[in-house]
């Protein structure tokens, strides 16, 4: 999700794709040719024999704008802003670590990332399959207050990379900086327009151009907006929330937003690579096109076909030891949203 581009409320998700399509350039659908066979074969990453895709449209004009994508090994440096419980950190760490865990039970987080891997740079090199945890920084004392603006978020990152003790490493090539705010922190436009966003830091503020994302824990402020479907907004009467897979609706809701932002950071880190639309300041990216879709039939307030565990928890993919619910992303090879699918089991 691009900075300034809203993550829509669940009641409006059914209108999201229609609205996007009406305002995109009215040209025919554009689908890139598969890259030469010495590169990753795109058709190996359409989830085998599964034909269960969602959100197809000939009007989606997702295009490559020649900017860099993250083909080198990706390292996620995390800033924990505010007070975080140990188990909350474990859930998020394991989700990130699961992206590269090839031995996870199917359907897996690593399988979900295969769609992201389809995207390439101008040389035909695919986005890296390796996503690993990097250094972490704790900001328990709210160094920039409990109300952050978009620019002050960059100041938080500056504090982390210039700290006198254990500063985060500067990794412009494969490093991503993930700022996570605790439930008692308000960020500009949080809940009303966004649940998370990504952009890059300004050298005038941070000293470097670094891709970063912010995601907030909505448990206290707006779980019905940003932790849906584990919480339901008041304006959808009669709809019951689903049981979260890790027992924390705020963190389980964050996981899907983190996945959303990591997928878009990998494919559009400097906002000049993969996106739809004519205006790079208002791009529609690979996860924006699939908001609200977690399985076959997803759209509107319906998540699609999901798994239900013996404990009643709802999920659509497995990590190393945990289960997660993460939205699908746009597959430009088949022009559909794709992801691990409960109906394939």
UniProtKB/TrEMBL annotation:
Keyword check for Transcription: no
Pfam families reported in the protein's UniProt record: Phi_1
Subcellular location field: Secreted, Extracellular space, Apoplast
Keyword Acetylation: no
Signal sequence range: 1-29
Major subcellular location class: secreted
Alphabetized UniProt keyword annotations: Apoplast, Secreted, Signal
GO CC terms of this entry: apoplast
Protein family: Belongs to the EXORDIUM family.
Protein known as: Protein EXORDIUM-like 3
Organism taxonomic ancestry: Eukaryota, Viridiplantae, Streptophyta, Embryophyta, Tracheophyta
